[in-house]
Amino acid sequence: MRVHNFSAGPCTLPVEVLEEAQAEFVDYRGAGMSLIEMSHRSKAYDEVHHQAMRKAAEVFGAPDDFEVLLLGGGATLQFAMIPMNLLKQSELGAYVDTGAWATRAVEDGGYHGDVYRAWDGRDEGYRRAPRPEEVALQPNTRYLHVTANETIGGIRLPEFPDLGVPLVADLSSEYMSRPIPWDRFDLVYGGAQKNLGPAGVALTFVRRSVLETANRELAAYLRYDLHAAKDSMFNTPPVFAIYMMGKVLGWVESEGGLQEMQRRAEAKAGRLYAAIDGSGGFYRSPVEQDSRSLMNVVFRLPTEDLERDFVAAAADRDLVNLKGHRSVGGVRASLYNALPNESVEALVGFMEDFQAANA
Ligand code: PMP
Fold first, then answer.
1. What confidence tens digit (pLDDT) does each residue in 153-164 have?
2. DSSP secondary structure string, 163-201?
């Protein structure tokens, strides 16, 4: 039995992918061993690895001048690697602070370069993303870092700002939910454990010209150029996570690609926000209309007690992982690509029943 899984990540994955992996797990394609028991230098794994890299470039429509990197350390290590590799003496990294994850990026960045907040949502209590004209850049800014989707706050950047400075974006909970305007970016990154697969690998796309001038006075693992030169096999890669990611990419391709994922995301989130907005104030979104996330829908109920009851009663109906992040409370329904429409319908039906019983 599969439940309606609204987890923010690791999260629900396409059941077809899980079953395919299960079928070939113990004896990988006649090798007499599983993929995770063989050398990462074996022919079988080499194919898995390069296939995943090719598929990533294809499905994302990444231009030829971007390298695909498969890295350890999650999105979190990228917070440090970006300034380490990109910032030269007297150059600045600008950050748009839209919430918890942007804060982590700018704080970690500060240990490895001169960084500043070009827009700061803290004073407003993180209710929205900025309009492009509100982002204040200083001279000598090397890049502008944005968090495309705040997984905890449920805030999404409606558009990627075009301010004449290359963008760097955390796409962790955004990957594969809309196409990427590549021309504005020097680098995008994200942990896999939302729309891409299990935890254990971060997918980074970096422009080749950036690698040519990237800082090299770094411990080997922290150098983008070395990972690129070795096709992300500089050291032992997270083989199982990469294998699963390759399969999920294939699934997205077979389902119609990023445009189709965007269409589905808009439909699912639209349905849920309509239920929230149509509840006469019983359910309430703390995020301004234009900035609402399609992947992580956060909402509040009239009291924290009701929120607790809601989450518990939902679980009794197999609607699980709806509790908001511990730092903000409330309810959060994550609607990643693999979450079927039926799960959203089941949630909306439950919300109506719960309101009728408790309003
Ligand atoms: N950025 C965002 C937007 C995230 O949602 C997360 C994890 N939830 C991270 C960064 C950190 O990712 P990781 O756990 O892979 O380091």
1. 999 999 999 999
2. SSS-EEEE-TTTTTSS---GGGEEEEEEESTTTT-SSS-
Looking at the chain, the whole-number percentage of residues with pLDDT higher than 70 is 100
Strand-strand pairing, 141-147 and 167-170: parallel
Spatial distance between the Cα atoms of 6 and 294, rounded to a whole number of angstroms = 13
C-beta of residue 53 within 8 angstroms of C-beta of residue 219: no
What is the torsional sign of CA 260, 263, 267, 273? positive
Helix (H, G, I), strand (E, B) or coil at 125: coil
Distance CA 34, CA 38 (A): 7
3 state SS of 266: helix
Give the pLDDT score at 300.
98
Q: Is 194 a catalytic residue?
A: yes
Residue 89 sits at φ, ψ, to 5 deg, of -50, 135
Angstrom distance (rounded) from CA 185 to CA 286: 30
- pTM for the complete prediction? 0.98
* Active-site residue identified among 97, 120, 186, 194: 194
Question: Model confidence at 26, in pLDDT bands (50, 70, 90)?
Answer: very high
**Atom of ligand 1 minimally distant from the CA of 174:** 3
How many Å apart are CA 264 and CA 334, to the nearest integer? 14
- For ligand 1, the distance from its centroid to the CA atom of residue 73, given in whole angstroms, is 10
Residue 170 falls in the annotated catalytic set: yes
- Across-strand partners of 141? 92
Q: Give the tokens for residue 290.
A: 């234009």
Q: How far apart are CA 180 and CA 321, in angstroms?
A: 29
